[in-house]
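Minutes, project check-in
Item: structure for the 55-residue chain
Input as provided by the requester:
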Amino acid sequence: MKRESIYNSLNKSKPGVLALFDPDRIQVDNIKKLTEFVCEQGVAGILAGSSLLVS
């Protein structure tokens, strides 16, 4: 699965969550959504976010 398709599928399921990784679109609301997403997903969410940054 390509990084862009992972980004798009996650962004569709949780709009704004990945905006934190886009410096042009950083907003407090997006950080709040990202925090909620990581809390819901637990360690898996953290690893998924990390893999998007690394890959």
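Outcome recorded: DSSP finds three helices and no strands in the chain.
No further action items on this chain.
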